[in-house]
Amino acid sequence: MSKIYPVILCGGSGTRLWPLSRKSYPKQFVPLVGDTSLLQQCADRLRGPDDAPYAKPLILTNEAFRFVVPEQLMAIGVNPGPILIEPEGRNTAPAVLAAALHLSASDPDALMLVASSDHVIPDTSAFHAAVAEGARTIAERGDLVTFGITPDRPETGYGYLKLSQVPDASGASVALDRFVEKPDLDNARTMVAEGSYLWNSGIFLFAVRDILAAFNQYASDLVIPVQNAIEQAQADLGFLRLDPKAWETVKDISIDYAVMEKAGNLSVVPYAAGWSDVGSWSAVQELSNPDADGVATAGEVTAIDCRNVLVRSESPAQEVVAMGLENVITVAMPDAVLVASMDRAQDVKQAVTALKAKGAKQAEELPVDHRPWGWFESLVIGDRFQVKRIHVHPGAALSLQSHHHRSEHWIVVEGTAEVTIDDTVQLVSENQSVYVPLGAVHRMVNPGKVPMVLIEVQTGTYLGEDDIIRYEDVYARD
Predict the structure, then answer these.
(1) Is the same domain home to 138 and 11?
(2) I want to staple 46 with a disulfide (CB 3.0 to 4.6 A). Which of 6, 68, 127, 128 is the partner?
(3) Are residues 338 and 422 in the same domain?
């Protein structure tokens, strides 16, 4: 059997799960269900079965997440393959085409398994069996394969796949008749009752040669600009940056519209072992093991006399008490709280739109800001001062930099920092502090093998993150 290369699409923003999922750190990086993030669960699932391990995953993401992706994967022991950086999002068709072109250069006989990074598929063994059935279908018929989810309810939030016949219980692939757009409730009920309609999971398996042939036949206008973006890509610290000038000419279109709805050689592998795209807080509630009253909680929560609720506290210092609630979603973050009716779960993105219109930074930014060297969070902000907690990974280093408008005090509370201030280099240990004058060229490094944490007190006339002049940076940031 040809080698299977997982292709993980990892660039979405996940606005329907605000306030936990935001543009600066969307849902695929968050432990929504379980102790690991959705990306980590996806990558773990795509290691493949023990008797047929898959190749290292190829990842497509964007500039903002290029360091988050390998950090999360290495944390679970997954050494990623190529990480392609999209200059900007262009939907799934250009991303899949870029992955196919990249793989064709080294293994044109490969199979590529395309999956979103933010799905929940609890039964890994059943998923591997479905992929094996898809590979068998490709070997026998040369089809493009998609995976259809057996519906357990009439759902209006998903597109559907109309099969040529009602699938049997064996899990064998069935020819696809057509794609069906998201239906209204009456049509959804009719389709589920009929039995030959499955949810469109957006997971695909095809031979690299076959999908490239399909793009050349049905979406030839995408091929040259995406090929140019690959050929003119620049290697950068282990990443491959697609060429931005070529990429900006690429059409924004999904793989369904560009290729799948036009191709005649499509098969569907039915899958009935559990799947969710975690597209709303109501889906999170269903996946969070609610009790007999439908109460699902996470974090420091006390629920009293509640029915059919999801209550989450995302800060260990924040106790959330829900009393007498029914059909309600409550998600408490340190800087924002969502309280919504359960039947409005699909409309949460409207809150993001409203917050953006009023200029609220909570619309897209989390209080914790993730960087390639670690993360920081603002604890207190005043007119002329700011207090931050800064966490630096072992061996990581901030850029050599200076500021026009602020000075800084650093107090180390965990670990040891190697601090450079102009021509002086010194070690600063726990309970020690150092002062960085305005305009001084400075850098902070964690030379140890454990995380280093410090409290930073900034004072000055302007405290924005853009008041940074970088002289050197190991992460190649401008």
Answers:
(1) yes
(2) 6
(3) no
